[in-house]
Amino acid sequence: MIRWKPSARRTRIALSASKYRQRRPPSDRVRVPEVIPTTAPKPEYNIKHIRNHYESYSQNCDARNYKAQSGNPSKIVGLFEEWAQSKSDTRDLRVRNNVIQKELSHTKTPSEVKTGSQYVTGQERTKLLQEARGLKNKLAASTIKEQQLLGQIDALAAELPNLTSEETPLGSDPNVIGYINEDVSTIETHPARSHVEIGADLDLLDFAGAATASGWGWYYLRNEGALLEQALIQYALKVAREHGFTIVTPPSMVYSHIVSACGFRPRDQSGEQQVYNIEQANKKKGSDRPAWSLAGTAEIPFAGMKAKQVLDAADLPIKVVGPSRCYRAEAGARGVDTKGLYRVHEFTKVEMFAWTLPGAEQEVFDSLLSIQKTILENLGLHCRILEMPSHDLGASATRKQDIEAFFPSRQRRKHDHVHSKEDNEGWGEVTSTSICTDYQTRRLDTRVKNVPGSKKPLEFPSTVNGTAVAVPRVLAAILENGWDKEGFVRIPEVLWPWMHGMQIIEKKK
């Protein structure tokens, strides 16, 4: 099985995978938006590489839990052979058609046609004309067939998961590769209170009002809770800017075909909706107006920002960071661990995104991880760093590392019925960093020129993305870890400049 190496310039083609804790196979087919305008980026898949390594691509599907797509590579080989045979037959038809047209062009009189050194009658000319008309129909049918075959090949290629990095553990279990602010198992922890209880006591969160206004999975941040959100945004932007990132505020609504190109599916493997689609008023049936979706992460509008553009190698890496509201239609299982702010439908996140030269992704990947570690360390959170397994890689990722923070309220489940070791230990994901190689740029028609050492005029750059701060989850971790038994929450010192002079959050009098 081929596994991707950072220096390799291979095609990475994927469909998104589920979280490793869910461990469910993806759907058989990606849903395509109803209308894709002619102005949309035209994807380009490396079909030659898939054909030449179809067995490795099939094995890669199995390794990433894409059982339904494991037969796609061999289907592509068969369809390509059919296309090549049709192409050969079409060339023969064109050769014969050219011969007839040449013969017809040598007409001496309306009733005579020159064939070699002989002249033929008008009746024979009529037969040639009939044959020419038949060839024209066959050529038209062959052209349609070849276009259909290429369309089927592209559809199958679009569903294949990305080639997997050699650093990625195969299967469902991540590898713990490090800790931030030491392993929490080595320290003494106070009696746990959930952030939901703390938020209610200190008048920071309002879930009841949000349930009435919007339903489950929505919330209001109040008082110091709202200030903490803004403080976290400003602190994350400050750290990223110090590392050379340009601040950009992206749109929250994007075309649905851009969402698909970035590897995000409208529905999950059980058919439950994940992406919020925007219903357009007064849109007539059959309209060529493209559909819109609400972005689940700023990674999508950031990637779309350079769609159908040619970048210069001298300008790479291009690194952007920005805050945005994110929308997830499917907010996960409703249990103890997802109660409160941990899994919600709408949230604020500061996202980092970069375009790099092919093969130069690792340096930016390490930079994003360094920023995440700095932020979480200075917030005083105990975290662990995970190399994520193949089953957990998203659509475009070839490698992914997550950072999970310690939530004291989760640890108290150690004597309850739990589904995984993680539930016992109290960890919860707060950041993620992924190398996506050229998966997104191939689908978005983003190219780069003047690549050193390349014989091609244009290459596809790689993309890397990572969370600077997912506000609700980090806010929840701060409340739980900063809680004091005297009834207040300590605010991390790095957030003080944006907290109007407050260093602790106390109960309202």
Automatic annotation (TrEMBL):
Coiled coil spans: none
List of residues binding ATP: 328-330, 344-347, 429-432
EC primary class: ligase
Chain ranges of the Aminoacyl-transfer RNA synthetases class-II family profile domain: 221-492
InterPro entries: aa-tRNA-synt_IIb, aa-tRNA-synth_II, aa-tRNA-synth_II/BPL/LPL, Ser-tRNA-ligase_type_1, Ser-tRNA-synth_1_N, SerRS_1_N_sf, tRNA-bd_arm
Important for serine binding, annotated site positions: 467
Keyword Ligase: yes
Record flagged with keyword Cytoplasm: no
Any single Pfam family the record assigns to this protein: tRNA-synt_2b
EC number in record: 6.1.1.11
One annotated GO molecular function: serine-tRNA ligase activity
Alphabetical UniProt keywords: Aminoacyl-tRNA synthetase, ATP-binding, Ligase, Nucleotide-binding
PROSITE patterns tied to this protein: AA_TRNA_LIGASE_II
One GO term of the biological process aspect: seryl-tRNA aminoacylation
UniProt: L-serine binding residues: 297, 328, 351, 465
PANTHER family linked: SERYL-TRNA SYNTHETASE
Protein name per its UniProtKB record: serine--tRNA ligase
Species annotation: Cladonia borealis
